[in-house]
Amino acid sequence: MHFKTIGGVALAASLVATTALADAGKLTVFDWSGYEDPGFFGSYVEKHGGPPSYTFFGSVDEAFTKLQSGFAADLAHPCSDAVRKWHAAGLLQPLDTSKLKNWDALLPEIKNVDGVTIDGEVWMMPFEWGNTGLIYRTDKISDDEISLQLLADPAYQGKVALPDGAMSSYALAALATGNGANYTNMTDEQFKAASDFLRSVHPNVRFYWADAGQMDQAMASGELDMGWAWNQSELNLIWNGTEAKMMRDVDKGVATWVCGYVHLKSSTTPTDQVYDLLNALSEPASGKYIIESWGYPHANEQAYPISDQAIIKQYGFDDPNAFFEGSLFFDAVNPELEAKMLKEFERIKAGF
Q1: I need a labelling partner for 329 at 20 to 30 A (CA). Which of 13, 15, 136, 184 fits?
Q2: 275 and 138 assigned to the same domain
């Protein structure tokens, strides 16, 4: 009888744990690969007994197309420049800031970004922000030599990687052609100049990356000398002993972005569980983790005093205003211009 009792208790405990894990996984997140990292949502796991379920996309364009085709999830992780488009397409439901426990602690500079709030309602909870810039092998290219224009130098044939995303690549091209300030609403002449620049770079492109890890590995192996990518790639390379860094000279060209989580209209999980994950993601502990382990600044200002101050100062996270000033900010692109970018980028990649 004693052993049967112990067995019964163990079985009951196992069933409870299994049920909790299943309930945790009922919450579905449509996200970039890597963001299933449990370091981001520890309190959700503590409360629900396991992580949410994840499905991944490689670009915001891919995510939008999939959602429009009927793919359903509870939360998704776009960047602020995409939110107006998703909102206009009827994919989102507004967020209730009274249920966001950390809302008041989020950086004002981040909360005021276009796309977070539309027509007086909040549509995205900011999570992380950072740079997209030119990362280069410092043992092969000097700080004085590096520039966006170097991407088109025939000496670097097969030594360059660009993102497989029209918006990011055109941001690079706008900066390279001196039109960064007009990135979201370029004239026909400016658009042609940007397209011509991307065509001049194309012969040097070894691949257009959809997974940043692909670029990181190729640069670490010496296959690449330069790549347009996020600051996480810079840290990955440095932490793995590769001599590399991001060009952050605003006069030469660097971009800034803010990304976060949106509540999809297709959501079927109870609202309280959805907000449990949003609150976990926006906690200071989550911020400390992404700053120290990923090299991205977090939206919660309370994360900075508890994080490694050497990293905070090295990457300028202690002054968000300076971080934004002078860089190209990824705002929503004029819809007509966006359509042109998407179409022309496919032609450029195909060699036309």
Answers
A1: 136
A2: no
| Residue where the block lists tokens 């439901």 | 93
Q: What does residue 34 show for φ and ψ, rounded to 5 degrees?
A: 110, -25
The alpha carbon torsion through 261, 262, 268, 270 (nearest 10 deg) reads 60
3: left (phi over 0), alpha (psi -120 to 50) or beta: alpha
Contact 330, 314 (CB under 8 A): no
Count the helices and strands in the chain (H runs, E runs): 14, 13
pLDDT at res. 22: 62
Q: In the predicted model, is pLDDT for residue 3 greater than 50?
A: no
Q: Tell me, yes or no, whether 309 and 333 share the same domain.
A: no
Which are the contacts of 258, defined by CB distance < 8 A and separation ≥ 6?
79, 80, 110, 113, 115, 116, 126, 128, 129, 299, 330
Range(s) of the domain holding residue 211: 130-256+329-349
105: confidence class by pLDDT, cuts 50, 70, 90: very high
**Residue range 37-83, pLDDT digits in tens:** 999 999 999 999 999 999 999 888 899 999 999 999 999 999 999 99
- For 145, residues 6+ apart whose C-beta sits below 8 A from its C-beta are none
pLDDT computed for residue 23 by the predictor: 87
Tokens describing residue 91: 């994919």
pLDDT in tens, 257-291: 999 999 999 999 999 999 999 999 999 999 999 99
Do residues 150 and 112 both lie within one domain?
no
